[in-house]
Design goal:
The protein contains three helices and no strands. By secondary structure, the protein is mainly alpha-helical.
Length: about 80
């Protein structure tokens, strides 16, 4: 972990100190948690797998007939 300096107005710092006191944590812990939350909410969601939907078909009965379909001989 590295030390850094931030600049904040007095009102914000006082709120942080009060919240840290209430939660029995250090101001540094609250700042780290706030930064982590901010970054997680701003991070782009992971891309979905490109193979999803690759076996898509127009059939609507696959859930009901999957056993028969699995053991069916392939048509030539």
């Amino acid at each position: 972990m590295r030390r850094t300096t931030i600049f904040a107005d007095d009102a914000l710092l006082n709120e942080m100190k009060e919240l840290a006191r209430q939660e029995q944590k250090s101001v540094a812990e609250l700042v780290r948690a706030a930064m982590d939350l901010y970054i997680r909410t701003k991070r782009k969601p992971a891309k979905k797998l490109s193979i999803i939907g690759i076996g898509e078909s127009s059939r609507s009965d696959i859930a009901e007939t999957h056993e028969e379909l699995l053991w069916q001989k392939p048509s030539q």
